[in-house]
Amino acid sequence: MARVLIVDDEKGIRDALAQVFEYEGQEVRVAEDGPDALLLANAFQPDLVFLDVKMPAMDGLEVLARLEYESPQSLVIMISGHGTIDTALEATRKGAYDFLQKPLDTDRLLVTFRRALELKGLTESMEELRSQVESRYEIVGDSPPLRRVLERIEKVAATDARILISGDNGTGKELVARAIHRLSSRSDAVFIEVNCAAIPSELIESELFGHLRGSFTGAFSDRAGKFEQANGGTLFLDEIGDMSSDAQAKVLRVLEQGVLTRIGGSEPIEVDVRVLSATNKDLEQEIEDGGFREDLFYRLNVVPIRVPSLSERREDIPMLVTHFSTEMSTREGSAPRVFSDAAIERLKTLTWPGNVRELRNTVERLLILSDGSEITSDDVDSLTISGARSANPGRELLALSNFSAFKEEAERAYILGKLRANDWNVAETARRIEMPRSNLYKKIEKYGLVRED
Question: How deeply is 107 buried, as exposed, middle or buried, from its count of CB atoms within 10 A (0-12, 13-18, 19+)?
Fold first, then answer.
């Protein structure tokens, strides 16, 4: 059932139109002038408005302009007994969906009505899809470290400053980049992402700058690169620390001059692109080792944003679990599953070398494999890699993806084992492992270690 508002100063036309649409099973309201229509629209929020052009006090074109604010989701169909091409064009320019002339033909009226409903359904579907996409890239949490990141995003998003986003794998660097784009003046333009680590070094220049046909083996046609594709919008260079030295030099030229040249070409192409970049490497160390250009680093690192690891924001875990659980149940069309308080507390104690990405995968695994309507702490221990690592410190270290994660997990396992061996006497543990007690307390807090019952 659609909500239909009919606005006309002639009672006969109001009644006739109301009868047609009520017979079709629609919910109908009528108004005899513009001010009455605006009040009704604000309360009724109609799907479609049939609006007369010539009315006393306020004509239809003025009402049409006001409806954009009073009822922005409404589609408006203008009706007039004195219609001209100029009037129809002005109505369309101001946002009217269609323009019908009196006397109104019932068949034409219903065809226009159904087409408008189809368009409205498509528009609502697109809004729903956009909402789902934004939910997928939402930054979730309220911890102090995350709030600092969000405050930095709000400050820099409106500018065109280049931003270098750093943080461990899985912390959400892409989410930060998308949030910056979404809040920027370029939000209506494209957001192009390039994972520099996933593209072979011999293809990265073609990927970024494009090529001309025949410029190398396999170049069967002209192709625009990511910089051209992102023109007017935002280009996100993920894992920038893995870019080849030749590509680094060309990126630097684009940043300095705003022009590029396709591989095999000589014609300079101007581009207007905001560049955001991200890395999980220590680029200053990479510069010292000769793996990254210092001049490019300073061009990219106008504003630095460091994304905290999950171990630094454990208080966000309950909110993240709820978010992921709701998102997955909505996607699958199933009822949301509940995580018990004990399960949440267990998740908060675990080590998360894969950060938020690992937590998301863990929530999905628990929802799929656990039995019953509630996820328990036993489910966490039996069905998660992190739970197994926590219950048996030192195991599965070789399965970790990188040396940094190995060191962190090994340190956590060592400290947990020593605390258990000393019956959780922190002072005695600190003495035995020759670590200042204050440092040990910091490690316990960092890894979320708690004494088991």
Answer: exposed
Long-range CB contact pairs, 107-110, < 8 A, 24+? 109/17, 109/20, 110/20, 110/24
* 7 DSSP β-pair partners: 31, 51
Tell me how far apart the alpha carbons of residues 76 and 94 are, in angstroms, rounded to a whole number. Answer: 10
The answer to whether the CB of 422 falls within 8 A of the CB of 428 is yes
Cβ(342)–Cβ(380) below 8 Å = no
* CATH 3.40.50.300 matches 144-308: yes
> Over 70: is that where the pLDDT of 401 sits?
no
pLDDT at 133: 44
The pLDDT score that the predictor gives to residue 365 is 87
Pick among 3.40.50.2300, 3.10.25.10, 3.40.50.720, 3.30.450.20: CATH of 3-133: 3.40.50.2300
pTM exceeds 0.85: no
The answer to whether the CB of 48 falls within 8 A of the CB of 96 is no
The gap from C-alpha 162 to its chain's centroid, in whole angstroms, comes to 19
Of the CA atoms within 13 Å of residue 317, those in its CB half-sphere come to 26
- Ranking 86-95, 153-162, 245-254, 273-282 by mean pLDDT, the lowest is 86-95
Write down the pLDDT at residue 126.
47
